[in-house]
Amino acid sequence: MTPPEATGRGGRxxxxxxxxxxxxxxxxxxxxxxxxGLARPVADPAACxxxxxxxxxLRRLLPRSLAARTALFLLxxxxxxxxxxxxxxxxxxxxxxxxxxxxxxxxxxxVLWRGLLNAPRERRPLIMDGLDLPEGLEAELADEPSARGSxxxxxxxLLRLLRLETLLGAPPRLRPREVIAGSGRAGRLLVSLRxxxxxxxxxxxxxxxxxxxxxPWHSETFLFSFMLMTAxxxxxxxxxxxxxxxxxxxxxxxxxxxxxxVNAPPLREDGPTEVATAAHAFNVMAERIRRFVGxxxxxxxxxGHDLRTPITRLRLRAEFLEDDExxxxxxxxxxxxxxxxxxTLDFARDDAAxxxxxxxxxxxxxxxVLDEAADAHPEHGxxxxxxxxxxxxxxxxxxxxxxxxANLVQNALKYGxxxxxxxxxxxxxxxxxxxxxxxxxxxxxxxxxxxxxSQEAVFQPFRRLETSRNRETGGTGLGLPIARNIxxxxxxxxxxxxxxxxxxxxxxxxxx
Length: 512
Hints:
11 strands; alpha+beta
């Protein structure tokens, strides 16, 4: 028997390199630690900018909702776990298939060898013709060994599959007289076994063995089972995240409703402990806000009531003045004081919160406000106009919306000498619409406009651009704040902007 020769391949040595560190050429001194400390890496500004751009790009790719982000991260984690599990499963199946292949190949080769030894020489070709060998295993009878011309060592993995030690440990009558092993093309194992009975004809059994491919996913139901499991896990993940994040959306809607109506109904304090605690804290906060607003309203109402009494007494005493001019001036001052007290009470009192919200025709409401303004200011009749649809239904509080529109129209007539109302149908994505469709209503005048730096300041209470203290020219400074409060309570808003050819535009947005 000629044992297979094992040859080792030499590699390039580590000549020219000493043991002071990887990549340090021999003979070159290593840098001193103190010198290394002097050289500090400097951040590249371009790299920092690129990293920020990449980070912002990744943030833009993320979903905007909490439920979608949570579901996305959970699904990504599920995919990682699935990939790791499938990898472990595939490796285990590969190992099991290798064991089964080794057992089958070695047993079939041993059965073939024993069958050839027990059969007469003339029947051995017939046995070879009727062979049914596993994939990767080939055998033939020949006069010469096919492995003798091989100069490469036999592949160790294929030798383990064939298990020649089983054949070499068989009884003497079953052992081959000579065994030659080598490597063929494409890494195939060549084994030549010499038959123990000399005589005429072929005396070598040449076996060629190649590594059969493994099939870790070779299963008719694997793909269906995997897809069903993945789809079920994904659906459960999405359902669970939506259910867990639903209280956040409920809390957001409750906060928005509280901003519109301080008397909004409280949240239900049920569910998990954290959700119930958050709902209870929100309800306590809302109750404190209502108590604060109620106390403020009662305080202002008491002040207003107490002020009306001395104003009434002063009005009676003014009637007894003999000087007509002094009596007229005093009565005008008292009227102004009473009007300012009433305006302050109206601003502080939230009467609109008690008014129910109902569907109303906004177009008809605009025309009514303009008709009343034209009757009150006949000198501006030609400068009052309405442009828009005949009917446009929105949901709101009729008296409060009428008051807000009347304040805007009165402001336009007082300071701009005109009031043109333009109503537009609902349009999606407008500012103040909170992502839904919104109605646009513009009130335009022909006045000098408002400086851009003061367009937001005029919505503050008692803030007037007209510096005199005369109500006939400057007003009380509460018309625009009252209008904005009412419109924001409806989920909308009002902003100011100057027109290109002169004049001011008050743009109102309301949810459709």
